[in-house]
Specification:
This protein has 417 residues and is an alpha/beta fold. The chain contains 15 helices and 16 strands. The longest helix has 18 residues. The structure holds 3-[(4S)-2,5-dioxoimidazolidin-4-yl]propanoic acid and fe (iii) ion.
């Protein structure tokens, strides 16, 4: 007799396992959980005998997908940049605003001045918004501290959020996000601080699961990124890269050379860079929120990425400047409308491929042995999640087998006892 502690029945399942064109859906399915892991999943007519003390959740014919994964956010920050949004509508450019002391440095100032409690509270509400949309794993980058104590504090806030929430938080060090004013004009010296002081301190405290950098003319050069990546490698930390967002800086190929988990943005990625990513197994993280908000003219080379077989992921890039998008469902729609992804590619981009972009093989599909991260939807078909803007059909988010809404007006469930 299996030792299941809970069973979801009367469900339509979208396991997101197959990379074929169809949805590999299971019309009348069931899913069992033991110790936070999927213990059995499939068609109900093949369901083995159910233990008497197993808690039954009847979802009333609704859809269950893997819990969604937001694999790229900058959601620990203070301050507001909507004035810059207005300036851009009046014709100012993103780089121009940054050069005038706005941009990332404006958020750095506000974040350095904010209390730890304030950073936690504002991040909690952003994450709760994502959880309400079926998100069970969130990646959070630092990058708004830009000195050692502030970067450590932002990563500690990320770890603390993981303790406070039922979902999983993954943290990424992004000290190489922008050159802080105290090193203005001397990026090489600042990179020296990142490599000599920040990264060792972060690694020693176990505060980051990966290291990222911003490879762009208004941020860091490929040579500077190499120094950061070499140090990360010495410290045993995997790397990710903000690559080719506003120009072809060779970021895609650089990420591939370092076997990066992911290269993100990629609007100006070259064919050679795309080929190198395919060879290296580096996932492409597409960020339509920044493309939309900055009204960028050139989408990433989706056809070339598809042809090369590069896994496509999608994420909010939630940040106050270039992507103030607080909804992963909106990102599904933007990924389809702006980048031409199919709904199935888009949903795979926030499940299986998003897990790969974080180097995680224990989630992102409905398969036996994986974390029992589930999202339960009041829809007729998963493509609806991409086809509509401004509606949230998620009725429950389950993290490692536990309903995140059990406290509130919760899930459709009938306890067997
Ligand atoms: N690229 C972006 O679009 C964001 N970071 C990055 O590396 C911008 C972040 C911000 O404007 O605050
Ligand atoms: Fe980003």
């Amino acid at each position: 007799m299996p030792d299941w502690d809970s069973l979801w029945i009367n469900a339509r399942l979208a396991p997101m396992v197959a990379s074929s064109a169809d949805w590999d859906e299971v019309d009348d399915g069931a899913l069992a959980v033991a110790d936070g892991r999927i213990a059995w999943v499939g068609a109900v007519d093949r369901l083995p005998e159910v233990p008497a003390d197993c808690r039954i959740h009847d979802v009333g014919g609704r859809w269950i997908t893997p819990g969604l994964i937001d694999c790229h956010t900058h959601l620990v920050f203070a301050g507001d940049r909507s004035r810059e949004f207005e300036q851009r509508l009046q014709g100012a450019g993103y780089a121009e605003i940054a050069a005038a002391g706005g941009g990332i440095i404006a958020t750095m100032r506000a974040t350095r001045d904010a209390s730890r409690g304030a950073l936690i509270d504002s991040a909690l509400s952003r994450i709760r918004g994502l959880m309400a949309e079926g998100v069970t794993t969130v990646e959070i980058k630092s990058g708004y501290g830009l000195d050692t104590p502030s970067e450590i504090r932002c990563l500690e806030v990320g770890r603390r959020l993981g303790d406070l929430l039922p979902i999983d938080i993954v943290t990424t060090f992004l000290g190489a996000h922008s050159v802080p004013p105290e090193y203005a004009g001397d990026a090489d010296a600042y990179v020296g601080v990142i490599c000599g002081e920040m990264l060792p301190a972060v690694a020693e405290r176990g505060l980051a699961d990966a290291v990222d950098a911003y490879c762009e003319s208004l941020a860091f050069s490929p040579a500077q990124v190499r120094r950061v990546f070499d140090r990360a490698r010495e410290l045993g930390l995997p790397v990710k890269l903000h690559a080719d967002q506003f120009s072809d800086g060779g970021g895609a190929a650089l990420a591939a050379e370092y076997r990066a988990l992911s290269a993100d943005h990629l609007e100006y990625a070259s064919d050679a860079g795309v080929e190198a990513m395919a060879e290296a197994g580096t996932t492409a993280v597409l960020l339509p929120g920044a493309f939309y908000t900055l009204r960028e003219p050139r989408p990433p080379p989706i056809a070339a990425l598809r042809r090369a077989g590069v896994p496509l992921a999608l994420a909010t890039d939630l940040n106050p400047g270039s992507s103030p998008v607080y909804s992963i469902l909106a990102i599904l729609n933007l990924g389809c409308v702006l980048f031409g992804l199919t709904p199935q590619e888009a949903l795979t981009g926030v499940t299986r491929h998003a897990a790969a972009a974080l180097g995680l093989s224990d989630r992102g599909t409905l398969e036996t042995g994986k974390r029992a991260d589930l999202a339960i939807w009041d829809i007729d078909h998963p493509r609806e999640l991409c086809a509509r803007l401004g509606v949230n059909p998620c009725i429950d988010t389950v993290a490692a087998g536990t309903s995140c809404r059990a406290g509130g007006p919760g899930p459709i469930s009938r306890s067997s006892d």
